[in-house]
Specification:
Number of domains: 1
Number of helices: 8
Largest sheet: 7 strands, antiparallel
Helix content: 10-25%
CATH topology: Jelly Rolls
Number of strands: 15
Mean pLDDT: 91
CATH class: Mainly Beta
Oligomer: single chain
Shape: globular
Low-confidence stretches: 1-6
Structural class: alpha+beta
Length: about 290
């Protein structure tokens, strides 16, 4: 058993409310049932104060200390994260472009003893997250840069509307913005069989208020989200503080490594593992991105 797995989650997680090491506990089963219901209905659920409140400041400080190592590059993007010069018909929502100003601290720069690392690598946490998503198992990404990352949105920047590559996203706010930086999403605006371009275009054109929700998040809350089918964004950050959030990325199959182009876009570099894995990716659907 690794050192990380030997550390009890009681030190980090409020196990009175979330007894992760006891999957058959009545309270755990109730939490999992509620999470599954909300994920099925809106594609999102939040577990408040998942990390013990006494550790919120430690969580913030640890992530703030590594935030300066984020790779930052303002880039012109579209909601599908495909080349903005892709030949698309007039009126297609993929023709709309935005300035993406968020940045990422790569996995190899997150200390192994940080609270977010302890969570990400712990078997009980992984099993709990899989249960909430109704999956038999989840695997850490084999990618040496992705998997566990810190997302940094500096004042004046935003993470514009987009869809995730992964179907299942787990995240935790570690530092909120003074103003702005709200998480907004459109529950299940598309499916694996239907892109629903008209609805996506309405949101981008400001006519999709009826499709959009704003989700209050606080440091230490655990968010489970189906970002592959729900268009979402972080609104522009204002004030003196950057918005920091940890992203725990898992896969239903082992050995997943990001593409060379996407990895270079997010981190400004690739490693031999990315070059070796290029071309072996298997798509689970035929969506545009």
């Amino acid at each position: 058993m690794s050192t990380l797995q030997a550390i009890t989650l009681d030190q980090v997680v409020d196990t009175d409310h979330y007894p992760l090491t006891e999957p058959e506990n009545t309270r755990t089963r109730a939490v999992v049932a509620r999470a599954r219901e909300e994920l099925a209905g809106t594609g999102c659920t939040v577990l408040p104060d998942f990390v013990r409140p006494a550790l919120h400041e430690v969580l913030r400080q640890e992530c703030a200390a590594i935030a300066p190592q984020a790779y930052f590059d303002v880039e012109t993007v579209n909601v599908y994260n495909i080349d903005v010069d892709t030949d698309l018909p007039d009126g297609h929502p993929g023709r709309r472009t935005f300035e993406r100003g968020n940045a990422f601290v790569a996995r190899d720069r997150v200390p192994a003893d940080a609270l977010i690392s302890r969570l990400y690598a712990h078997e009980s946490f992984q099993r709990f997250v899989a249960d909430c998503f109704g999956l038999p198992r989840l695997y850490e990404l084999a990618d040496p840069l992705s998997g566990l990352v810190l997302n940094v949105v500096r004042p004046g920047m935003e993470h514009p509307w987009h869809f995730d590559t992964n179907e299942y996203t787990v995240s935790m706010l570690t530092q909120g913005a003074e103003e702005g930086g709200s998480f907004e999403y459109c529950p299940n605006i598309r499916s694996a069989e239907d892109e629903r371009f008209d609805d996506v275009r309405d949101v981008l054109d400001g006519r999709g208020g009826h499709l959009t929700r704003r989700l209050p998040l606080r440091p230490g809350d655990l968010q489970l989200f189906k970002g592959r089918y729900s268009l979402h964004r972080v609104s522009p950050v204002r004030g003196a503080l950057a918005r920091h959030s940890a992203i725990f990325a898992y896969s239903e199959r082992p050995g997943v490594i990001g593409s060379v182009s996407r990895t270079r876009q997010l981190f400004g570099r690739v490693l031999p593992a990315h070059l070796a894995a290029e071309g072996r990716a298997v798509r689970g659907d035929r969506l545009l991105d």
